[in-house]
Amino acid sequence: MVAELHNRQVVRVPELVGLPLKKAQAVIENAGLAVDAVLFRESYEERDTVLDQKPARGQMIYEGSPVTLWVARRGYMEHLPAIYRRSDAVGRNVVRDICFLFEHMFGSIEEVLERGHQYYDPHECPPEFLEWLASWTAMVLDMDWPESKQRAILKRAVDLYRIRGTKRGMILFLHLFTGHEPRVAENEWPFKGFRVGSEARIALDSVVLPPVDRAHCFVVTMPVRFQDTTPETIIRIHRIIQMEKPAHTQYCLRFESDEGDAELREFFAIGLRSGIGIGAEVVKAIEDTGEGAPTSAGTDSAAAGDSGARTDDGRDTGGRDSGDAT
């Protein structure tokens, strides 16, 4: 204990009498001291003006020592008839003492009620009150934002609420939460679905997937590559879009990609340029020899090599050249 006191610095108590209570508390903290208690004393001075202090001004005390303040209050006596303000022969007044007792008990509540309007102002409310105040307008604040940005956005919460569900609002909220301004294309859908043939009809429709009404669709393109985006950011983007889009609409989220040879097309098509049930072999184009029926340069020529050539009169040459047969 002695060693701890020896290491503590000695500071001089500043002058606090005549200062407002808030300013006096700030001066005490700057001097390295602590406010022990704030007591009320009946006075006609301006409310919460410091009337007395302990320790007195100029006294040398250890850093962190408590300081007691007496501030001016009219007291609840001013609301009572004059007969209750009289003191006895020795200057005591029991009613005044009881009123001061209640004033000390409920002084903190009265102080909160006096500055209650600050809790409804985004620039003056306590930091822990910002999230509750934002819930009034269904505004979601990012805890990673600096406090100044949270207060500035919350100040415009009512104006931002008017554009919710619009293209402008979605772009603005995505830009605020991700730092990137996306492109939103309305009445578009990147895929045509699962189709079988261009004119084929299975039952009543050739589209296997349900039809998509482009009037209720939009595409959101983020100006960043998918490889450069974290999973947490992707989840946040989806949540923002689902929160800001109209309930009856569908959306597709895309990311910026490097340009290449591949183009976006139907991801599965049957009957346009493919064959089903023909075989596992690769069917090549048929060449026209100009001497009658066209011949195949693929499997037909290979079969002729195995079975041998035949002359026009039907004789089997056994695979020999026609020049040798003659």
Structure in words:
The chain is built from ten helices and twelve strands. The model is unreliable at 278-283 and 293-326 (pLDDT under 50). By secondary structure, the protein is an alpha/beta fold. Helix 7 runs antiparallel to helix 8 (231-244). It is 29% helix and 16% strand.
Question: Key features?
Answer:
elongated, three-stranded mixed sheet, 326 residues
Q: What would you say about this model in short?
A:
This protein is α/β, with parallel strands linked by helices. Helices cover 29% and strands 16% of the residues.
What's the total helix number?
Answer: 10
Terminal Cα span: 128 Å
| H/E series | HEHEEEEHHHHHEEEHEEEEHH
Strand content: 15-25%
Over the alpha carbons, how many angstroms does the gyration radius reach? 44 Å
Binned, the helix content reads 25-40%
Low-confidence stretches: 278-283, 293-326
Largest sheet: 3 strands, mixed
Global morphology: elongated
Number of strands: 12
Secondary-structure map:
Blueprint: H1 2-7, E1 10-12, H2 21-30, E2 34-42, E3 50-54, E4 60-62, E5 66-73, H3 94-114, H4 130-134, H5 147-155, H6 157-162, H7 167-178, E6 183-186, E7 195-196, E8 217-222, H8 231-244, E9 250-255, E10 269-270, E11 286-287, E12 295-296, H9 299-307, H10 322-325
Parallel strand pairs: 2-5, 7-10, 8-9
Antiparallel strand pairs: 1-4, 3-5, 6-8, 11-12
